[in-house]
Amino acid sequence: MAYELHYWPGIQGRGEFVRLALEEAGADYVDVARVPASEGGGERALLQKLRALAPPPFAPPVLVAGEFVLAQTANILLFLGARHGLAPTDEAGRLWVNQLQLTFTDLVKEAHDIHHPISGSLYYEDQKDAAKANAVAFRRERLPKYLGYFERILESAGPWLAGEAVSYADLSLFQAVRGLQYALPQAMAALAPRIGRALALADRIEARPKIARYLASPRRIAFNEAGIFRHYPELDGA
Amino acid sequence: MAYELHYWPGIQGRGEFVRLALEEAGADYVDVARVPASEGGGERALLQKLRALAPPPFAPPVLVAGEFVLAQTANILLFLGARHGLAPTDEAGRLWVNQLQLTFTDLVKEAHDIHHPISGSLYYEDQKDAAKANAVAFRRERLPKYLGYFERILESAGPWLAGEAVSYADLSLFQAVRGLQYALPQAMAALAPRIGRALALADRIEARPKIARYLASPRRIAFNEAGIFRHYPELDGA
């Protein structure tokens, strides 16, 4: 039985955290909205499908796994982590990885809001002044706080965020680091000397065979200015 | 063994979702930062204690439960829900309640950001124009979308969000409804005819004996303008 992933077809977005886990697991899955529209893909079909699912999801990504219909990125990863050995099997370890993933949830929301601080349904151009002010605060305080936090964890334990074995939280740190490097290259270059372990972890994830094959495949959508991590030069700075 | 809850002593905040679960469970717990400073309470002691915990939390609330040191509200509730019968015991039910709680996480962040859209470390007065614009979008689109979503779930199943038995997601819906009614009374009054089931659920939670006792006790901090749900009349509107 192949998993069905339902997510926006043109962006990495929150769905990418799920895609990375599915790829590292070597799981059989269909990225439903990315098949041709003639075969049921596309955004309009996605919205129709989401409305028909039960229990109803609030928003994509949604993973259909047999009788399970799961939404919320961290919730989907909690499920996949247990199924595919991408999380510790003991309760404390499982909760720790979930806790880390929820911190990525917070980081991702804040990284999105630097370009959309007023409303997700207004254009960037119509909230640019607020975006610039938000981005300054994010670069000065939040970015070093978040990445410094993961760095501290790796300093005290490691080599992975949950210790000896790779988990989906490591995949998510990779994705967050690459996204932030795309969106805010100057800020990330300035921060690099203080987050060496986090950057090295991202490199190790990128070199894992299944992830490397995925990243080189057409299945990996490029970062772009419709996603969470957007490169607007006026929001960046050292 | 009493649980230790570590959270800001002067606000309901995200900690309140944990407090409600502990109270409904009848659990023995100490709200550490709220004991007198002479006995180790207060904000400064809280910050010192958080720095000493392992694994390190990114931010409060933190629950210490014997050897477990848990952060992230939804993660703490996942743990307490299983321990105290506040979530279904089957995997699908447990994940569904977690999924709902993560939707409350999103709602709470957006409800906070209507008064702090630029940065949590700037004063409200210094981001008031952006706050007004954010609040308009929140009231018009996000508030009806979130509460309409929970209403739809209750319409198709109920009487509780996970069906026949109360769960921590119901406690969270109560808290979100009361917080939004405090912050945005006009907007919530205008929405009331369309969310009758959600409002009735909040009333039923409020009338549960342990919750009613808690709400009448000095342990319940009043809503105030240092918390997530703040009543700034200029942000409200029908």
Summarize the structure in words.
- The structure is a homodimer of 238-residue chains.
- With 238 residues, chain A is of the alpha+beta class.
- Helix content of chain A is 53%, strand content 6%.
- Chain A has 9 helices and 4 strands, in the order E-H-E-H-E-E-H-H-H-H-H-H-H.
- A 4-stranded mixed beta sheet of chain A has the order 2-1-3-4, sandwiched between helices.
- In chain A, helix 1 links the parallel strand 1 and strand 2 (29-31).
- The termini of chain A are far apart.
- The mean pLDDT of chain A is 97.
- The A-B interface holds A 54-58, 67-68, 70-72, 74-75, 78-79, 91-92, 95-96, 98-99, 102-103, 105-106, 109, 113, 117-119, 121-122, 127, 130, 133-134, 137-138, 141, 146, 149, 152-153, 156-157 and B 54-58, 67-68, 70-72, 74-75, 78-79, 91-92, 95-96, 98-99, 102-103, 105-106, 109, 113, 117-119, 121-122, 127, 130, 133-134, 137-138, 141, 146, 149, 152-153, 156-157.
